Amino acid sequence: MGTETTLPTDEIDRDAVLRYAYYIALSRFDPHRANGSNDKPWLFPAYDRLVHVNSAGETVPGLAESWEFEEEGTVLLLNLRSGVVFHDGEVFNAEAVKANIERGQTLEGSAVRSLLAVITDVEIVDDLTVRLKLTSPNASLPAVLSTRAGAMISPAAFDNEDLDVFPVGAGAYRVVEHIVDDRVIYERFEDYWDVENTMLAGIEMVLLVDVQTRLNAMQTGQIDAAELETIQIPDIERAGLNFKVAPDVSFGLVQFNSALRPEFADPRVMRAINHAIDREAITEGVFFGFARPAVQPTPEGYFSNNPDYGPDYYEYNPELAKQLLTEAGYPDGFSFEMQTTTGPSRIATTEAIQAMLGEIGLTVSVNPIAGAGPFLDNVYGSRTAESWMLAWGGRPDPSITLGLLFTEGAFNNPGNRTTERVTELYQRSISTFDPAERTAVLQELSAAIVEDALDVVVLYFPDKVVAWNDRVQNIDLWASGRPELRGVSMTKE
Amino acid sequence: MINLVIRRLLAVIPLLFLVTFLAYGMILLIPGDPAIAIAGENATAEIVEETRQRLGLNDPFLVQYGRWVTGAIQGDLGTSLFVNRSVGGAIVERLPVTLALTFAALFLATLIAIPAGILAALKKGTWIDRLTTVTATMGIAMPNFWLGLLLVLGFAIAIPWFPAIGYVSFTENPFEWARHIFLPAIALGAAACAEITRQLRSAVIDVVQQDFIRTARAKGLRGPSIVIKHTLKNAAVPVVTVLGLQVTRLLGGAVIIEQVFALPGIGGLAVKAVFDRDVPMILGVIFAASLIAVLVNLLVDLSYGWFNPKVRPK
Asked: Nearest 5°: CA angle at A67, between A65 and A70?
């Protein structure tokens, strides 16, 4: 998914300030207490992390130049970069890593505690080497350290009263002005370890919640780049802006609680449902073609996606679906409730599914729940919902998503249904450390999940759009769904 | 006069209690739990419970409200549940933008409404009157956010005279301030302008039919003098009442207009606070808005005495 174009350096304007609009407000600038992955675009210019991800979602060196698993994966050894300083002049070293991880684990109100729970001890080997001792092998830890959980705060600033408003990190940019819920002005940090490749003199990141307002601001030249919506593509083209369309790791799914309704525990029923849903009708009818039909829980082209299982693995075939239902002992079908949130595309998708399942004799009553909080409580908290349609936000590593949805006892698997081979492959996915080998395991796991027809029916990956004007170079859509401005440059006017 | 002001100001206190108490109750009716949002997307059930304990969200309603009131009486509106900063500070930072927008809208609205209303009344029944009435009806019927978007398309994108988003403070650059506030103020003030025009028109029509105007005319006074000295002052009372009501309506409308034009006012703060269930912030915004509403109403009441000596308190 990366689109790198190299420009002659004399065309790049190292004095340029990028004006970028993002649509979700920052919760807090303290990365350990910032509560969502939506905060990343605001946090990461100022806070560097131990591990970086590239736009394709693969982990690459960050403040840790390299890492390796030791002692059968129960220890993660990090080799830290030398010569790194925080914005307050403090030196980044093994001490700082230990202090940060311990802060994330123990701080009152920490929102990264559960992500760091796998680490039992941080041992300082020398000034630039740490060993993280783990409760069990965990190959997704490097990806976790690319999130807020791996963001490094200057230990001298831990107790700053205003850390929620003024970050003190080691990122490529330091914050010079922050008007809460309005804008953040970043300025290039000249002592950044990779300052040579930090092409922008600064970033002015503005909160523009309304998507039409973002497009308007791009048209008047008040903003250089922003994420927009696919429905605006004709307007984006008319305005003469550059844009790119691609899906990320978030996807639409329907999930069934097979513990509450044993009918769903029969794989034949789940295969019948898979065959009864016309995914393309949904992507065309609800998303006007700006979504990709899928049966796997990661997008095409992403490293854990198995190329042999395309969207037509479960081709639309109501006759076959009916036959499978009859085989399972439900020739007359049965009825159940499907919950969703009140967003227009969610309701439209759920109603389409209602009609499609009605064709094979399954009577679905749609129940839209107002508010994400009560909805999530019904489906994963109190687990009182029989089935539901939702958008899965994606996680930094596929093992995390697959573990949460498809393993026994997992928070997002209320039906608690899994199979032996899925369990076995999942275990291997978190205890295989060679990247190529791990990719193979993940692809095998992805295939097993599709074949075994577990409680989740994957529907589609919606497209995202980023637009930019002619001066902006190298801006991209990130597989993580959270844009980073690393590598972005601007040409001279 | 001073007694009246003091009495009215004292009456504000129980009113604010009532408003914030009701607001607190309504916040509890919003489904969702701030602790879930604050604990973050990777939280476990224990972390959520711990967050609830830490923020005192498990305490009974009256205890929570009591805690807030105790602080508020001492001038402390509390700390945001989300960001470690004072509610009072956040409001002081953002209120000037909303006030500037509201009063710019009101100013532009009156600037247009006064001549339009008088003209329509004096030319009652002619095409001028009908045109004014039709335009005013359209102004009332048009949703302000939609008008805002049209204005941006017309006067920021097609004809780039004004910026589409953003705000510059008056003290920083008065010219840029005016450029940034103009379109939002028109969008917000259109309905108010229409309302005032219609009120003024009917008030003026009413007054010019009174005996004292006929007498003035019989004494030989001519047009402008009658309109300004005799008619307007008497027609002002209903208009000022509407003006006072418009201020609170404009404050409400500013919430939407601020989003359309990305102005860093109190509206964005309120919307985010409601989505986050940030109780102290919601209460703070409601507190500030109620205070403004009450003060504006007081000013309106006092102005009656100036326009009409008969209602002056003894």
From this structure: 160
